[in-house]
Design a protein that fits this description.
alpha+beta; three-stranded antiparallel beta sheet; 4 helices
Length: 194
């Protein structure tokens, strides 16, 4: 498969190289997603620059380089590993960037964002700057047919972040006034829409 690969950290975008790499195979309990859209997240930029990513060294036996970044991705289920139920080839999905364990107290309570042993797509495992990405089924979010891949990938993290801040934490309700700073950014513009 083709992927945008980095072989070291750097400030310039030209350290990303479009290369052939092995297509991942879904193991037991894993799903392979054919990536149809990716987005650029600040995590990707920070990782490329070497500001974020030291925690990925040694995770699941990963070597530091070469590396495929890509926190945000979406596409279609391409293959399903043994023991996976609830998904079929062709399903429209997006891997959540937070690769929660699914078994700790936080995950069981529906608070995967504070999972005790979460990884991050594109940081602790190869990410979505590739034709294919694999993950566990508990990391997948279904995409409605009416939503384009581009809109889905652009909105997932900003809307999840804004929703958590405004609805879950601040508990805003209809009719209340809220000051949204940085409304021109992804999270800010999502907050305005919420």
């Amino acid at each position: 498969m083709k992927a945008a690969v980095i072989h070291g950290y750097g400030e310039e975008f030209n350290i990303l190289r479009y290369e052939d790499v092995a297509t991942p195979e879904p193991g037991p309990g894993e799903v392979l997603v054919r990536v149809r859209a990716s987005a650029v997240n600040h995590c990707d930029t920070d990782l490329r620059r070497g500001l974020y990513g030291g925690e990925r060294l040694g995770v699941d036996g990963a070597e530091p380089f070469p590396w495929v970044m890509g926190v945000d991705a979406c596409g279609e289920v391409a293959a399903i590993g043994a023991g996976v139920d609830g998904f079929s080839e062709g399903d429209r999905v997006s891997p959540h960037f937070m690769l929660s364990c699914g078994t700790c107290r936080a995950c069981i309570d529906g608070k995967e964002n504070i999972c005790e042993s979460a990884g991050i797509l594109g940081v602790t495992s190869w990410g979505g700057y590739a034709e294919y990405v694999k993950c566990r089924p508990n990391h997948l979010i279904r995409i409605p047919d009416a939503l384009s891949f581009e809109d889905a990938v652009a909105g997932q993290i900003p809307f999840a972040t804004a929703w958590e801040a405004l609805v879950e934490v601040a508990q805003i309700r209809a009719g209340e006034s809220v000051l949204i700073t940085a409304a021109g950014g992804g999270v800010g513009s999502a907050a305005v829409q919420i």
